[in-house]
Amino acid sequence: MANEENLKKGAPYRFRTGEQQVETARKGGIASGEARRRKKTMKETAKMLLDMNIPDAAKELRAKLKVMGISEEDFTYQSAVMVGMLNQAMKGNTKAAAFLRDTIGENPLLAQDEEESTLADVIEEAYRSRMEGEDNAE
Question: Is 92 left (phi over 0), alpha (psi -120 to 50) or beta?
Fold first, then answer.
């Protein structure tokens, strides 16, 4: 609830010198940079983990990849995840199927938007230009 007591608590933060504002902004920038580095590090860590080779001790996982016809040099956690998603999709998991479709870049919703804004538009515009040219010639 707003009252005069609350306003008094904010008084030290209301009027700051230029140096104080610069120092506060600097601290905020440092904290923001650290957060960005942490997020980047998590992304890089995920990529590193997916690219790791599957150890020989994981015999069951290596056997599944071998049955799928994947060469031993490609025995990575990334290939294991994709095999797992493929198995789920073949069992009828539509989310796994959509994940695989989107991963290879064949989402029909995205492809439809691209087609409408490229080839179809170019053809239609060429047709209109030709028709207008013929009308002007008469």
Answer: left
- The Cα diameter of the chain in Å comes to 83
Strand partners, 53: 76
Phi, psi of 133 (to 5 degrees): -65, -40
Contacting residues for 75 by C-beta, under 8 A, at least 6 apart: 53, 54, 62, 65
Give start and end residues of each alpha helix (H) in 52-107.
Answer: 59-67, 77-90, 94-103
What is the per-residue pLDDT across 80-124, written as a single tens digit (0 to 9) for each?
999 999 999 999 999 999 999 989 888 887 765 544 455 666 677
Taking the complete model, does pTM exceed 0.70, yes or no?
no
Query: Is residue 50 packed enough to be buried (19+ CB in 10 Å), middle (13-18) or exposed (0-12)?
Result: middle
To 5 degrees, how large is the angle CA 39–CA 79–CA 90?
A: 115
Axis crossing angle, helix 108-117 with helix 119-137, rounded to the nearest 10? 20
Distance, CA of 110 to CA of 108 (rounded, Å) = 5
Following DSSP, what letter does each residue of 11-62 receive, concatenated?
HHHHS--HHHHHHHHHHHHHHHHHHHHHHHHHHHHHHHHHHSBPPTT-HHHH
